[in-house]
Write a structure and sequence with these properties.
The chain is 26% helix and 16% strand. By secondary structure, it is an alpha/beta fold. It folds into 2 domains: 75 residues, Oxidized Rhodanese, domain 1, CATH 3.40.250; 165 residues, 3-Layer(aba) Sandwich (Oxidized Rhodanese, domain 1), CATH 3.40.250.10. The longest helix has 11 residues. The chain is globular and about 50 Å long.
Amino acid sequence: MARKFLLGLLLVILALGTAGCGSGPIVVVEAPTASVDTEIDKSKYIITPDTSKPNNVPIEEDLSYVDTAYMMNLMKINGPTSSERTSYEQYPSDWTFVLVDSRPAARFKESHINGAINIPDAQFEELAWMLPEGKNKMLIFYCGGLDCHLSPSSAHKAKELGYTNVHVYQEGITFWKEAGNYLVTTAEYVATLIGAERINDTGKKPFLILDNRPYNVYFDSHIPTALSMDDKIFIEKYMAAMPVDKGAEIITYCGGFF
């Protein structure tokens, strides 16, 4: 019963996730500050690869890149929730872009950027049906970081399918976290945390699952081990109770994607 309830909870926000691969600066000049348009001119964005780290994936002239500041502004414009989305396999159709995580499914389930769909690069051909029908829709691919080759590889494959507005967020998960942004997890990952074997394993770090719905809703049903911390009174009542360890894994959830 608990597992069915887990799978029914549609949105679980992961405040501290697992890092991807690598780090190092990509310099992108002048991130957008107003509305983002699918016809946005990318010619003014100057990308400078970091040559000090030999493992970093080289910048390719035939690909368009965006950085963390651009992504954060894009998210701000489109908003954190979607009234159209009902599953992690479905991109938010009311957003102006489609965000694609090119990493393996297990990494996506554990932690990913809000709103992303998962099309692992190794399975691109069989999962390409998840992409939008319109070939001019903005697509942004990301993976683990500057030394991860999966997102540029997927971007090339999307262009070969005829998509004309394709971009790579090469800084990926690593820079997204370093900028202070949260990550999203899934019911499948949470289910691995609350089993007796994991709970009783003294070698595993503790975690917090926080139910941010009103208490009467929490009282009726909630994820096992979750603590009730109503978002409306979170600052006044619960903020001081947060772990001293700033690296602790904290998972918050509410009622769904909306």
